[in-house]
Design brief:
Length: 442
């Protein structure tokens, strides 16, 4: 039985030999613990305490506070572009090359030839222009910024016409109508949710119209009695009325996608054949690089974007630029193995089965089985397009297994009351860890 008078004084408590030399963080943690002790004793929740245990508790909290909050997880959901788990994965090779710039001084804004200030946006632009066959490009923080910058530059206090079927909300509360409002552009909605015709756009054009905007229906699709206006038709209307055409692609991709995934969704090269005035897409969706917003189109328009003061707030860091430059070089050399998003998508069923079988043999054949099933790309791309995958189905109650695996940093998925470890999104260098986690959990 102890009294309030036995509660250690903070200075004396901190002198305990197990504590490191005093610092602000340790003091703060110790103060909170002692205050809690006083509170509990006053409330008669406890009547006794052991100072050595208090010391251990404070030390544990102190050590834990230095553990990283961001930590690696194994994505066994089968969803390659998992927005909650960091979207595109960057290959170690790309990061290694980029690290030379990131970890030292560089010519980020230095023109070495002339010995004067240079342009940060130049570094990726030559290669990117070659890759996309466009007049000019600009890279900003993410595609949301790209949409905002374009609308603010060209459609502030003016009208941009958009189909009602394309007023999308992307995960994380990015809503096209809201972004347009914030940018100062006036949204002129046309058509119905399921149908927007060329004539709807044509009839809406008035003296305040500056732009026809098309937005990719990233994470949903409208089926059945529906109709959208093609980009070609929008472009044609723009040319006839001297308006700007802008296509927010959401996610742009370059090489052909396997499993006919590109059927409803044209590739960047296909869209760019129409010579759009401006397009934008994410750097970390199907493009498979760092978070960025990539804008491409006519040079005189990109020049105007560069003059907008907002660009200073949306500008990209050297970390993004150097990773993006390495990804673009990988594209130009068709080294798709350096772009994990594409690499994972391109794996065939036979190969996935082989890898899954090898893992299954190590876990024990009695504990699980291999199944062939379907998955989605995720990340607001290729809506409703499923494609084949291979998973290990673990025997046992799915909800319990899901939780246990999650606590061990492996995020799987539940399908038909079975817990699945889906190989579509599994990086080969995590397979050993998967075996270890399975051996621990089941
Ligand atoms: C994903 C997406 C955005 C937002 O892109 P971020 O790079 O996540 O900012 C904007 N528009 C569309 C159509 C999208 O699919």
């Amino acid at each position: 039985m102890k009294t309030l008078r036995d509660i250690p004084k903070i200075d004396k408590f901190l002198n305990h030999k197990l504590f490191p030399s005093q610092n602000a963080l340790l003091t703060s943690i110790a103060q909170k613990r002692i205050a809690k002790l006083r509170e509990d004793m006053l409330a008669k929740k406890i009547e006794d305490f052991d100072e050595d245990i208090l010391v251990q508790e404070v030390l544990k909290a102190y050590t834990q506070s230095f553990e990283s909050s961001l930590k690696p997880l194994i994505n066994a959901t089968g969803v390659i572009l998992h927005t909650n788990m960091g979207r595109s994965v960057i290959s170690k090779e790309v990061l290694n090359k980029a690290s030379k710039v990131i970890c030292g001084y560089s010519n980020l804004e230095y023109n070495q030839e002339a010995g004067c200030r240079g342009e940060r946006y130049e570094h990726v632009s030559e290669h990117l222009k070659t890759l996309l066959h466009v007049e000019d490009v600009l890279v900003v923080n993410n595609n949301a910024s790209a949409v905002f910058l374009i609308l603010n530059t060209f459609a502030k206090d003016k009208e941009a016409i958009v189909s009602r079927g394309e007023l999308v909300e992307i995960g994380g509360s990015f809503r096209i109508p809201e972004v347009m409002k914030q940018s100062g552009a006036i949204l002129h909605e046309v058509g119905a949710t399921n149908k927007t015709k060329k004539a709807d756009y044509a009839n809406a054009i008035n003296e305040n119209t500056v732009m026809l905007m098309k937005v990719h229906q990233s994470n949903f699709s409208i089926e059945g009695f529906s109709e959208t206006t093609s980009y070609e038709d929008i472009k044609e209307l723009c040319e006839a009325n001297q308006l700007l055409d802008y296509y927010d692609l959401g996610s742009g991709y370059i090489p052909e996608l396997p499993y006919n995934l590109g059927n409803n969704e044209p590739s960047l090269p296909t869209i760019l054949k129409n010579n759009p005035s401006l397009i934008s897409f994410s750097g970390d969706k199907l493009f498979g690089s760092a978070q960025a917003g990539i804008i491409a189109g006519r040079k005189e328009l990109i020049e105007k974007l560069k003059k907008n003061q907002l660009l200073r707030m949306l500008r990209v860091d050297k970390i993004t630029l150097s990773i993006l430059e390495e990804t673009i070089k990988a594209y130009l050399q068709e080294k798709f193995e350096l772009i994990p998003t594409l690499w994972l998508l391109q794996r065939d069923i036979k190969e996935l089965k082989k890898r899954a079988t090898s893992v299954r043999n190590k876990i024990g054949k009695d504990k699980c089985e291999i199944i062939e099933t379907k998955t989605f790309m995720g990340g607001g791309t290729l809506p409703n397009r499923e494609f084949p995958t291979i998973a290990i189905s673990i025997k046992g109650k799915a909800t319990i297994l899901e939780k246990k695996f999650r606590q061990n940093n492996l995020i799987g998925r539940i399908e038909n009351d079975k817990f699945l470890i889906d190989f579509r999104s599994i990086l080969p260098d995590t397979e050993e860890d998967i075996v270890k986690i399975c051996q621990k959990v089941i």
